């Protein structure tokens, strides 16, 4: 079995964090890394203890949800809260950072941004990253890494198809196949 690369490992972590998002408009995750160690993580959501967009709907002003704090901002603020230096760190984000987060990333001394999905990439954000020497790299998430039993699923489906084409299957065998399918595909 081959080992997962660092880039995929941190990018997967950001995608896991995005699953914690409470904003229904977009789920974003961010992971701050220093010396190949995760030092902070964040997702877009309300202030601690606040109501959630997923419960009350988004609070939209000028086409932006103003209730949530962005994932990158939450990760940086987590470092501020616990006194963790962000100088020379790197950040892995599911989506290209917005202009506000871009500026916060630069000011926090983060040196490199890895992003998985292009998202309204603001030309001024691109310009500011360039101007401040922050390296930006596109890292696509390998989604198969999140499906550990993917290969097993494929093999099972092809076995199932062979079996079905053989026509006469006993009820016992059918039940076995059904149970196996349930265990493989249930989320
Ligand atoms: Zn929202
Ligand atoms: Zn942002």
Key phrases:
single chain, 187 residues, alpha/beta, Cytidine Deaminase, domain 2, 2 domains, 5-stranded mixed sheet, 7 strands, 42% helix, elongated, binds zinc ion, zinc, ComE operon protein 2, APOBEC/CMP_deaminase_Zn-bd
Mean pLDDT: 92
Q: What distance lies between the first and last C-alpha atoms, to the nearest angstrom?
A: 24 Å
Global Rg? 21 Å
Return the CATH class of the largest domain: Alpha Beta
Reported for the largest beta sheet, the result is: 5 strands, mixed
- Note poorly predicted spans: none
- Second-tier CATH architecture of the largest domain: 3-Layer(aba) Sandwich
Structural class: alpha/beta
Assembly of the depicted chains = single chain
Q: Tell me the helix content.
A: 40-55%
| Overall 3D shape | elongated
How many beta-strand elements? 7
How many independent structural domains?
Answer: 2
Explain this structure.
By secondary structure, the protein is an alpha/beta fold. It folds into two domains: 6-145, Cytidine Deaminase, domain 2 (3-Layer(aba) Sandwich); 147-185. It is 42% helix and 18% strand. It has seven helices and seven strands, in the order αββαββαβαβαβαα. The strands form two sheets. A five-stranded mixed beta sheet has the order 2-1-5-6-7, sandwiched between helices. A hairpin with a 2-residue loop joins strand 3 and strand 4. Helix 4 (99-107) packs parallel to helix 5 and helix 6 packs antiparallel against helix 7. The protein starts with 5 loop residues before the first helix and ends with a helix. One zinc ion binds next to loops.
